[in-house]
Amino acid sequence: MIERGRQEGWLRRPIDTLPTWANFHGVKFGNVSIGPLPGFEDRGSTVIAARELQGGTAEPLLVVPQDLIISRANIELFSRSDRHLREVLEAIGDFGRTTRGAVLTFLLMQATICCPEIKNIGVLKPLTEYIKFLPDELLPTFWSEEEQDLLQGTTLRPAVRAKLSSLLREFELLRTATESIDWCVKYWWDAENGLLTFDDWMRVDAMYRSRALEFPGAGDCMMPCIDMANHASGEATAALYETDEDGNGLLLLRNGRTISDKGEITITYGDDKGACESIFSYGFLENNTTSAKVMFLDLDIPDDDPLRPAKLFISTVAPGLRIFDKDGSVDWESDYIWLIVVNEEDGLDFKVSQTIDGKREIQAFWKEKELDDTSKMKEYLQEDPAWDVFQLRATVLLQNRVEEQIEAIQATPNSTHEMTVREIPRRLAEQLRRLELEMLQRATSALDNQKTNLLESKTVLAYLGMNSDEDADPEEVDFS
């Protein structure tokens, strides 16, 4: 429905008509305009200075009325006067009460209202027109199989697959929940004439994911016009966004910043986001990107661990590892790994108890102390005399996991479909592979240094003396 609407023109408006829409609905422009940056028309639209601007002035660059914000609170208000929107939100239950579920449903309803083949469904709103100005975003969920193959070994490949699976589950939830609503059956799900497809759900997800901003006082939302601003990190960020006492959205030039006439006014989408997340959510990398910044790797409990089933059952933390830049080096953190590296001999124990209603449950204990939250495992281990030994086990395990990822990323990606791969996915995949490989190699060096230092620990040396011959080489001891 949305793709066809773009092609046929009823779901697309030229960006040069946006000021007319904005002014008519109360958006105030403070010497800025929205459109392509002169000389960079291929980058799409952005916020541009209409004259030289100085930071620190009282006048906002943009003021967006509170009732134009696409937020969960506003969507709840809209649904009170739009029974069709309300029917769908109520039908999808708890998902419709989340910000994501409410916003995606709202966007889908606006596209439905725009469709010329659908009559008397929904209530026309100013925001119904706004989605016509939103461009299609080439996020990795829209990459072809051949293009996704180029992500082999990167952290983006499993993230895209997991996202597509999640989107499919949401779409099936929408379908199942609304198949009893007559107008949904007629216009969305009819076997011959139904207009809604999984591709439509992917498109509203891309609209939201690439434009959602966390506004003080409004939470995660889409802020018309302000969400046209492009991203720049650090000192390159030109403007800030916030809400005023009435809940209106504001775009403010940073103090001390000067923007030349026809210059671009940028905001930050989040300076701490890594290269993987930037491509995943926004479909681009900054030109000056020199580091992957942060990576998430999955971890698994070895199959030969006799406590594996119990550990999996009681785990309350994400089964992964975070590697990140810190003070010019690479560091790591993981709550999950501390559950992996301990065993029964160390003091980890499990007991089966029976609840009042007769059900059986597993309880975990660390040296007689109940472990009701596995995120506390590290705290307990830090208090243990064998803490250095546990650290060494974790370091060795992480070294193996990082080396495994390096081997995967160095493997030659599938190149049998070069002619069908578009330039943007090819370039982004190559950049990501290079950045993540460099971070993994730096992580290997950092972990090797940690291991060397730990092997000098008196605790570790004593542990080695108890479990090996005096002349044994510490490097040869298996700590897994």
Describe this structure in words.
This protein has 480 residues and is of the alpha+beta class. The chain has two domains: 2-265, set domain protein methyltransferase, domain 1 (Alpha-Beta Complex); 294-476. It contains 17 helices and 17 strands. The strands form six sheets. A four-stranded antiparallel sheet has the order 1-5-9-8, with no helix packed on it. The N and C termini lie far apart (54 Å). The model is unreliable at 468-472 (pLDDT under 50).
Secondary structure elements and pairings:
Blueprint (H helix, E strand, L loop, with lengths): L1 H7 L9 H7 L3 E2 L2 E5 L8 E5 L3 E2 L7 E3 L7 H10 L1 H9 L7 H16 L11 H5 L14 H5 L6 H23 L3 H8 L8 H14 L1 E3 L3 E3 L17 E5 L5 E5 L4 E2 L4 E2 L9 H8 L11 E5 L9 H7 L5 E7 L2 E5 L2 H5 L7 E7 L5 E7 L2 E2 L6 H6 L4 H24 L12 H32 L3 H10 L13
Helix pairs in contact: 3-4, 4-5, 5-10, 8-10, 15-16
GO molecular function: protein-lysine N-methyltransferase activity
InterPro entries: SET_dom_sf, SETD3_SETD6_MTase
Protein name: SET domain-containing protein
